[in-house]
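Have a think about this chain, tokens included, and walk me through the fold.
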Amino acid sequence: MRFLAPLLSAASLLWLGLSAGYAQTKPSTTWNNKQCAVVLTYDDAIDVDLDNAIPALDSMRFRGTFYLIGSSPVVAKRLPEWRRAAQRGHELGNHALMHPCDGSLPGRGFVTPDNDLSKYTVSRAVSEVRANNVLLNAIDGKTARTFAYPCGDLQIGGVKFYDQLKNDFVGARGVTGGLQTAAEVDLTNIDSYMINGQTGEQLIDLVKKAQQSHTLLVFLFHGVGGGHGLNVDLKAHRQLLRYLKAHEKDIWVAPMVEVAEKIKTVQAGPAAGKVKG
């Protein structure tokens, strides 16, 4: 028996090691039985959304979320293309009618007097967001969608204007970087990583961290291959999509509205407090 005991001990340690490894990689029931969820979002309704981003997503059969500014000339000029994108499953999210930002904050010299959120009333902000919903519904015929805060600004005079819009949307995306389990997500201010100049390897590394932690990862893109001061290189964007495609059995890639609806269901469940994304 004195020779058997070390063998049993070694076997026990091996079993524990394998179990720990499995626990790190097993699929999560929260994210459609996959390890994590990844949402690809694109802001501001610019030409490169239609010229670069959507064709890249379509080539991989991925669906993203495009946050449209209602007053953007690219919405008016290319409305049939936005409608076709929605028909292929991309979400047309709400990024407000005029994209107002708080001009009183540091580094906001780009904010014009007409679009200064600090000069808005809450009722004006809410009305413009709802007007943009009417426009988006006319394009895609849908009523369920998500909102993205222009410039990540949540308040007007200390008041959270989105509080009046909670019933208009499934959720709202913010600009604070972070990986969260479904139980940790605040659907009124969903974390996201703003992308500007990162390499493909850096983007993929974020995905790997989400896989390991079984969390939600939201990418916030503006320009893809140009078209905006905040930009990601086409090659880096392509590398990310290829990694997601190669690992799609482990990664749930879906529009923000679908992921937010899933999170809402999880958080409303009887064991919501115990959920580990």
Observations:
- The first strand starts at residue 28 and ends at 31.
